[in-house]
């Protein structure tokens, strides 16, 4: 049954619901759509501006604001103002440990392997939830501006994002009530916005140079038959326009003989200076010298000085371009087009140096901070089937995955993946001496497997007995062009192997698929809440297991107070585990962890010390 909706903005009947394109950026996010004249347009809802700063603020009663309004709290209420959440998406604490000082809010480090969480007041948020809040704001702005419900979107991610980061982006969309039809690479979207790759007959190799607020990346893409292949990426996740602002700020401070330590005591003044520095940088587009009055101080800088200050940073980006070309095994002369992306590519010096390096004029005709969202809107239009000239490749209608701890669905091939495709992931055992592993395969979009459709189940038998966490079981999904899914499980240490085949589309109608999709959107909130509770519980149970075993083994080396207190914390954690309150569980895990860490480390050091001494005697 086809749905017909009326677009109240234009008064025309729309056969298809609008699918928007979203650029979920580290600094700024925005949404675009294809207007009735078939042109991609960015959305500026009620004149609030096109760019929505990717910042979330939590008020005293937990009230959430997103965008410019939230940005105002960056310095006055830093603990409750979350910026750059994209850097944390799909990441573990181990991934970001090096940069932990960058974040002014609390990033939780209780378990370096699992995904990071952020603590605001007494509540724990995942980067998925926070990104979901930004996406929700974009969805609402689009609905308000277009006067029609918006339920489907194409969302972009950096080319270097891994599976877990892509899945996190999909989940964030779901939380915002958006069905994410496809995750598209940012450089691919930018290229589409320039019409590069829309003609299936052309073959091209392009470089996409993306300098944003805090990140830089360059991608080399090969486009053939309308398929974009990433040949190489390079970049620096801590280099961007913010560094240019900082350079101006430093210069003003030095030139006016201001004392930095004193200034730091006045965050409001620092923030004003930083904003003025950013404003100044942008003014160099039209003027070669800028005077700013901040308080009673006149701050002056000219464009030449500015360019000298940022030259080393820009040279660094050129170095990355050189490396990307080398990785792609290409010569500069083999690059057919260069596309500029990101607000910071408006800087004249950047344009000059990139153009000089590649030896050709660069594409900068489209607004560099809008180009990704516009391209995402074009991709959305292609998916909606509105561009008949473009071939749509076959895609899987529902996600395919397996059951993990606590009855959760772990997606291996996300829905809308092009077929044929293959993907895999590594798992391990959760119990000491486990010799069999049940592998249950499901299809569907819900977080809990009990809501999804079961396709197959088998046991991988004959795993040699090892401690929990030691076996390495690779599970690979291969979906061929005929829609047949081959599931392969192999334990890498012993080589034991098992294989089954199923046809996921067998016995399911289009209507059932549609219902499953709709259900996943309507239940997204509950599902994700349940998933987070189960994850917290699994983490807590694992912690109880480990600490209890630790006390059993090493209790004699601990003081009586250490043992009794640990037991007290254990008891409290066990109670929390039955409470159904994920925040309470996390709080207890945190406390137990904090208490036991010092003596766990002490014993470890002793053990290592003994082992080392033992060695040196030999
Ligand atoms: P991201 O992709 O990281 O979310 P954007 O592409 O929106 O970021 O880029 C934001 C950066 O672009 C900011 O540092 C901003 O100061 C910078 N920027 C915006 N306009 C200009 C301009 N006219 N000149 C120089 N830099 C600019
Ligand atoms: Mg960007």
Describe this structure in a few short sentences.
This protein is α+β, with helices and mostly antiparallel strands. The model is unreliable at 1-11 and 614-618 (pLDDT under 50). The site of magnesium ion (MG) has 4 residues, from loops.
Description of the structure:
It is a single chain. This protein is an alpha+beta fold and 618 residues long. It has four domains: 19-191, ATPase, nucleotide binding domain (Nucleotidyltransferase, domain 5); 213-365, 2-Layer Sandwich (Nucleotidyltransferase, domain 5), CATH 3.30.420.40; 400-521, Sandwich (Substrate Binding Domain Of DNAk, Chain A, domain 1); 526-612, Substrate Binding Domain Of Dnak, Chain:A, Domain 2, CATH 1.20.1270.10. The protein is built from 15 helices and 28 strands. The strands form eight sheets. Strands 3, 4, 5, 6, 13 and 14 form a six-stranded mixed sheet that branches. A four-stranded mixed sheet has the order 17-16-15-20, sandwiched between helices. The longest helix is centred in the C-terminal third of the chain and has 36 residues, at 582-617. The chain starts with a strand and ends with a helix. Magnesium ion (MG) is lined by residues 25, 212, 342, 372.
